[in-house]
């Protein structure tokens, strides 16, 4: 057996023996404990079911709203940015995985050289040298300490974190569109109330103005009713501005230029679905931001392993094979070159650099743990806020509905008293001034009830069982279910 073949055989056997004893250094990931209460504050009895288990189109049961959400999920630019970041992370997974595979490269060179030396007669003797070479390089690192494995774990966790971020954007966009849509419906109701108050105050102004011109009344009621009418007209313009701003915001979410947003069912016709919350521990698997935070911990843990492995030597197999051609003063020849061997390299003294890199990664791990626990705590707070809103708004709406009914009756009674001459018109005016703000307050409470459902769905991690395709194509999912 030739020396070259013996060397190659030795290197291969040594490499195989080395890899059989590979050990993955660094800590293995263990999810840190998170203290969760047994129940949400102000929550009804917990059930296994949750509104978060429903797809978004089952919660927001308005075909027009569903169309707006679908358009948003198809065209939103923030979502497109997230998709691009996922592609970046996926490519980095491939970059990391390539470290565990053999690496093959090539090299080539062309050169010419001349040298001078004195000949026997004392003159210059010129020697010309030309060379042409080509070779293939081969290298393969043995992952003795799991450095490459930990690097792959970190890259994979980064990819999964970006995917969870995308799912979080899907949920946020769905919630933002629904909330904006309900705000638009409430503004539509407010402008209808303002237009009715303008009509009523205008009619009152006409009555008082006629009485004043006939000498039957003073100018005071004329000016007061004129001021009320003008205030209502000013309010209409303010509401129109707010409607335009809200429509523009929704248009941007939908990835479209600012424009008019279509409406479906009126505010008072919107349904309020039942909203069970489930168990508090379900938040850890439902909320995309919590899952993303956990992937961040897993990445940090893997990076600690990489930092530990960097303190140990690296062992790898390398080989070179090629041809070298040379020409010396017209005498040319071609030679074959080749080598194979094991390489070992490792740190001895780095001035504390490797230790500080590990300390940095350990501190980053501590940061991600704190962020994870904070995210879970924020999720509990957001859920409790939504539940508190549901409880209080329901009672508030009932009280406002009773108030509006009473005020409408008082307006009718005041009008009857005025028509029969038993009261002045100021009594009618006072009843109207109380009615219209109460109707506004009722419309705002109806809006807030709908938004509370939106917030609860978002806080619980709604739609967590949907695939990415199901998020964006609800019509095909419904058709498949029906078939």
Written account of the structure:
The protein is of the alpha+beta class. Helix content is 62%, strand content 13%. The protein is built from 12 helices and 4 strands. The protein has helices at residues 3-20, 56-59, 63-75, 77-97, 147-213, 219-253, 283-286, 288-309, 353-419, 425-459, 468-472, 474-482; strands spanning 103-118, 124-142, 314-328, 331-345. The chain has a 4-stranded antiparallel beta sheet with strand order 1-2-3-4, with helices on one face. The longest helix is centred in the middle third of the chain and has 67 residues, at 147-213.
- Give the N-terminus to C-terminus distance in angstroms: 71 Å
In helices, the fraction of residues equals: 55-70%
Q: From the helix content, strand content and strand pairing, which structural class follows?
A: alpha+beta
What amount of the residues lies in strands? 5-15%
Strand order of the largest sheet: 1-2-3-4
The rough form would be described as elongated
* N-to-C order of helices and strands: HHHHEEHHHHEEHHHH
Radius of gyration: 38 Å
Low-confidence stretches: 13-19, 476-483
How large is the count of helical segments? 12
Number of strands: 4
Average predicted confidence as pLDDT: 85
- Could you give a short account of the major beta sheet? 4 strands, antiparallel
């Amino acid at each position: 057996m030739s020396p070259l073949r013996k060397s190659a055989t030795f290197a291969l056997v040594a490499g195989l023996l080395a890899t059989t004893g590979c050990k993955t250094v660094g800590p293995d990931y263990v999810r840190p404990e998170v203290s969760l209460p047994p129940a949400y504050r102000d929550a009804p009895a917990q059930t296994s079911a949750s509104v978060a288990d429903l797809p978004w189109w089952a919660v927001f049961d308005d075909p027009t709203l569903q169309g707006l959400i679908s358009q948003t999920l198809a065209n939103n630019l923030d979502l497109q940015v997230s998709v691009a970041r996922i592609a970046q992370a996926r490519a980095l997974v491939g970059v990391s995985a390539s470290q565990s595979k053999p690496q093959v490269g090539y090299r080539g060179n062309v050169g010419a050289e001349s040298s001078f030396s004195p000949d026997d007669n004392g003159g210059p003797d010129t020697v010309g040298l030309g060379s042409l070479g080509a070779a293939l390089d081969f290298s393969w690192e043995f992952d003795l300490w799991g450095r490459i494995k930990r690097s792959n774990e970190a890259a994979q966790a980064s990819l999964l974190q970006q995917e969870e971020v995308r799912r979080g954007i899907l949920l946020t966009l769905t919630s933002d569109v629904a909330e904006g849509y309900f705000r638009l419906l409430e503004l539509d109701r407010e402008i209808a109330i303002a237009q009715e108050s303008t009509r009523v105050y205008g009619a009152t102004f006409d009555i008082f103005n006629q009485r004043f011109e006939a000498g039957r009344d003073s100018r005071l009621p004329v000016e007061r009713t004129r001021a009320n009418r003008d205030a209502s007209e000013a309010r209409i313009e303010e509401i129109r501005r707010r409607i335009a701003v809200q429509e523009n915001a929704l248009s941007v979410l939908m990835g479209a230029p600012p424009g008019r947003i279509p409406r479906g069912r009126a505010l008072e016709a919107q349904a309020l679905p039942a909203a069970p919350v489930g168990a508090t521990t379900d938040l850890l698997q439902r909320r995309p931001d919590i899952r993303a935070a956990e992937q961040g911990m897993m990445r940090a843990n893997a990076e600690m392993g990489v930092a530990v492995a960097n303190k140990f030597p690296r062992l790898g197999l390398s080989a070179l094979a090629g041809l070298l051609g040379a020409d010396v003063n017209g005498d040319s020849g071609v030679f074959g070159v080749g080598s194979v061997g094991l390489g070992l390299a490792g740190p001895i003294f780095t001035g504390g650099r490797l230790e500080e890199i590990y300390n940095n990664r350990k501190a980053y791990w501590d940061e991600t743990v704190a962020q994870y626990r904070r995210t879970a705590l924020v999720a509990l707070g957001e859920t409790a806020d939504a539940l508190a809103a549901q409880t209080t708004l329901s009672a508030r709406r009932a009280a406002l509905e009773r108030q509006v009914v009473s005020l409408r009756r008082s307006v009718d009674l005041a009008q009857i008293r005025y028509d029969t001459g038993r009261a002045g018109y100021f009594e009618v005016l006072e009843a109207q001034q109380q009615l219209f703000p109460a109707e506004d307050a009722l419309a705002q409470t109806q809006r807030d009830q709908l938004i509370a459902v939106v917030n609860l769905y978002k806080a619980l991690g709604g739609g967590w069982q949907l695939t990415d395709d199901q998020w964006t194509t609800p019509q095909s999912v419904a058709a498949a279910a029906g078939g």
